[in-house]
Amino acid sequence: MSDYEKKGYLVSDFRVFRLKDAALKPIPFHYHDFHKIIMFLGGAVDYVIEGKTYHLAPRDIVFVTAGEIHRPVFTDELSDYERIVIYVAPEFLQRWQNQDNEHTDLAQCFTYAREHSSVMHQPPGTSHDLLFHMDKLEKTAHGQGFANGLFTEIMFIEFMILLNRSLYEHELSGLNNAIYDPKIQETLSYINAHLAEELSIDELAARAYISKFYLMRKFKADTGYGIHQYIRSKRLLLARDLLKTDMPITSICEEVGFADYSTFSRAFKEMFKCAPRDYRKQ
């Protein structure tokens, strides 16, 4: 992702903030090392996530998993873009996960979003008013008082529980107005499921029954990435996650589809500014 900047920063377990911007300049495709949740409140905005474009309406909830390529597109530059945003570290959610019970996995909402729709809508009148809870969480996060940090963390956990309950209880509905090319989505799914394998443009085009020239052009238009660039970036992001486990580094190199360690190490250092062994030590 050397051509596309890693945006945002997160030095704590989570951040919550409210933004209202006018006359924003175009935002390029980018990614984060953390998960992001957006409660959309107002504006004229389309949101592009991994090749799918969603037209947003107030009370839409946008889920962006760490490493997903995305950007907002402003369809009316004079309209204010208002939203509440949460950044959350994947490791923080993992600490609350009970491996024996999937119903305690607070990151389940991101898994659900990837499999169904990255944007969900909650109408008023449901049992868990997520806008109310998110607004209360944002105000508390910027408040003062006794044990405010602990109180904010408790409220954040409560919000994540209610968010996941809303999904389990079918109170959030996926958007059916997403615009995408089925052939590109098919190619994206295949790439992400076969990162350890040889992935040539000729093979990908043949699988999608389209010409490689159309595939290259449309892939770039929909995702902001060339095919080789996308594959390399996804392999390195997977490698970064595997480095947090005890898997041997040489095995990680093979697992993410690099033919030799030296090539893997150079690519990893170019993207993350440190060698794989140094990243593991950190």
UniProtKB/TrEMBL annotation:
Residues 185-282 form the HTH araC/xylS-type domain. Keywords: DNA-binding, Transcription, Transcription regulation. PROSITE patterns: HTH_ARAC_FAMILY_1, HTH_ARAC_FAMILY_2. The keyword Transcription regulation applies. Transmembrane segments: none annotated. The keyword Transcription applies. It holds the Pfam family HTH_18. One of its GO terms (molecular function) is DNA-binding transcription factor activity. This is AraC-type DNA-binding protein. The lineage of its organism: Bacteria, Bacillati, Bacillota, Negativicutes, Selenomonadales.
